[in-house]
TrEMBL record:
PANTHER family named in the record: 4-CARBOXYMUCONOLACTONE DECARBOXYLASE FAMILY PROTEIN (AFU_ORTHOLOGUE AFUA_6G11590), CYTOPLASMIC PROTEIN
Keyword field: Oxidoreductase, Peroxidase
GO MF terms held by the record: peroxiredoxin activity
All residue ranges annotated as the Carboxymuconolactone decarboxylase-like domain in the record: 22-94
Cited NCBIfam families: ahpD_dom
Organism superkingdom: Bacteria
Stated name of the protein: Alkylhydroperoxidase AhpD family core domain-containing protein
InterPro entries assigned: AhpD-like, AhpD_core, CMD-like
Annotated organism of origin: Dyadobacter koreensis
Oxidoreductase found in the keyword field: yes
Amino acid sequence: MESRINVQAKGQSALKTIFGIGAYLKKSPIEKQLLELVNFRVSQINNCAYCLDMHAKELLELGETIQRIYSISAWEETPYYTTRERAAFAWAEAVTRCEVGDDVYKEAMAEFGEEELIDLTLAITTINTWNRFNLAFPTTPGTYRVGQFG
C-alpha cells in the first residue's frame, strides 16, 4: 500500500476533539469492559484491524476471557454474554449500520437508562469514527500498547 498521511502526527488538532469524547466516556456510568466489548464488535463490523488489536489487548488487560473476545461476532449464538451486553451489541450493530428500529431501541432502553443510552450511542459513533480514520490512514496492526492513548 502506498504511504498515506500519518494522522497521529499531522491530525492532532482534529483528533483532540475525539480524544475529548474518550475522556468524557471514561466518566460514563457504563462499565469500561462493556464499552471495550462494544468497541471490539463495531471494529469487527468495520474490518478495522488496528482497532481490533487495540481493543482485544485492552479487554485482556481488564480480565476478559479469550473465549468471549473471539466469540463476539457470533454473540447471538453463544451463552457467554449478559442481557445487558447483548442489548449493547444489538444497539451497536443497529447504530453502526444506520438501521435503528423500534425493537432494538426498546431492548436497549430495557437495559440502559436514557443518559446511559446516549453515552453508549456516543461511544458507538466514536469508535466508528476511529475505525474510519484508521481505514483511511492505516496504522499498522499489532503496534498498540495497552493504555497508549490514555
